[in-house]
Specification:
The chain is of the alpha/beta class. The chain has one domain (5-181): Rossmann fold (3-Layer(aba) Sandwich). The protein is built from 5 helices and 5 strands. It has a 5-stranded mixed beta sheet with strand order 3-2-4-1-5. Helix 2 links the parallel strand 2 and strand 3 (74-76). The relative contact order is 0.24.
Length: 182
Amino acid sequence: MSARLWLVRHAAPLVAPGICYGRLDLAADAQATQQAALALAQALPSHAVLRHSPLRRCAQLADAVRALRPELRSQADARLQEMDFGAWEGQPWDAVPRAELDAWASDLHSYAPGGGEPLAAMLARVQEALDERDGTEDADRVWISHAGVARCVHWLRAHPGRNATAAEWTQAAPATGQWLIF
């Protein structure tokens, strides 16, 4: 069997519904993190290589998995962070000016939401992580990360070299505490 990529999403973050929280360094619900870690620790193969976003909600899950599976090691990787929404971070989505949301939707690939990170930059860093050759190509890779990173992986695999449009950006992402395997 060839090596697989596991895209694991952090547990539910401690944030009110409707808040933009891409790069905010939020903790995740402790009980949900433990439940996700238990399920993931039982499912992972013995020689998996873990990488995680440095944001607290992902590091929590990586630490919890390692507590259950001490033979597994994890390393923070900034390329696995969620999109940076700039000035929108921490704001209710319905407080973001409609004109700014429309501008983002009309140029999803290049527009920097809230002055943060355009999707093009996020896709480039995720592609760099996918392309990395670090001697672990034969082992399953496990990325404990975010919905945006999972969506980027889907896009990059399905549409290599193409710019994304808002109408096409319906890529699947795991629910909090869940994962997808490629």
